[in-house]
Amino acid sequence: MLHGPAAMGEPWQPQPQQQRLPGFGNASEPSAWPSAAGGPGTAAPGGGGTGAGAGGAVSPWDIALCATGTAVAGENALVLAVLFYTPSLRAPMFLLIGSLALADLLAGLGLVANFAVRYLLRPPSEAAELGAAGLLLAAFSASVCSLLAITVDRYLSLYNALTYHSERTLGFTCAMVLLMWLLCLGVGLLPLLGWNCLRDQSACSILRPVTKDNAAVLAVTFLLLFALMMQLYLQICKIAFRHAQQIAVQHQFIATAQATSTRKGLSTLSLILGTFALCWIPFAIYSLVADSSYPVVYTYSLALPATCNSLINPIIYAFRNPDIQKSLWLACCGCIPSTFSSRPRTSSDV
Length: 350
Prior knowledge:
- The chain is 63% helix and 0% strand.
- It is built from nine helices and no strands.
- The longest helix is centred in the middle third of the chain and has 39 residues, at 212-250.
């Protein structure tokens, strides 16, 4: 027996299905990388709306992000192991390098966790998505703040060269690093505390589940921190040149070595600023001006270089350091190459 409209001769109309949140079992909906479960979604073949982990196609971009995260985690784990097992590497500078390595290690694990949440976790979990988003927010915030802390430390080591070692004690540095990490962990908790757009998809930014307003705040904060880093590095260059000139005047016989040291320091500064800007500035500006209606391929193409910054950081800040290089050589082959430079570091080695 027919019931409802069909019984009264009215044409049958299909009932609308219940709306589903993007990223939860529907691979055709976007779910942007940095703070969602694995990145902007890709439609499953045929548009059937099946989940990406339930027979749907896996995005090559997501695979690239997961592979990058694995490499980032492994590389920074090596840095942490060297710092932990080498008693001589206990100075404040190495503590800051360790903080940067830990932040990048967590960022790499966050990328892998995002991939697992999106493609492997069934049934999908809103808490898992927000947790993965919070991990990435906290990790990348700590990475940027650690870079800023290293910049400030290098500036103080030149500006207050006579009192630096007495003022910058290990305990003071530990307290500052702990405070910085508490602040970054607070940023990572924001999505879990309700600062997300899962219940209002129109408010989503490209960094789902971060809202457009929050993404704008994060982008502006990042650009301000970068401007501060650039200003500090310019001051470091001026101080390093002045020190080099003073020493060259007093000791003509080491002028050539000092000039070489200064050139090396300036090349390091250029590498640091150039790499940081190329990796992060385009993504920060895009996060500021774009919204969830923009093609997700733009988010992917700018997010991947930003994650690669965590892959480059150990090369710039750790593996180029002579003390860490010695520890690596001793750990790998039990010796130090005869060609290894034992020149003591000077104030121009910024």
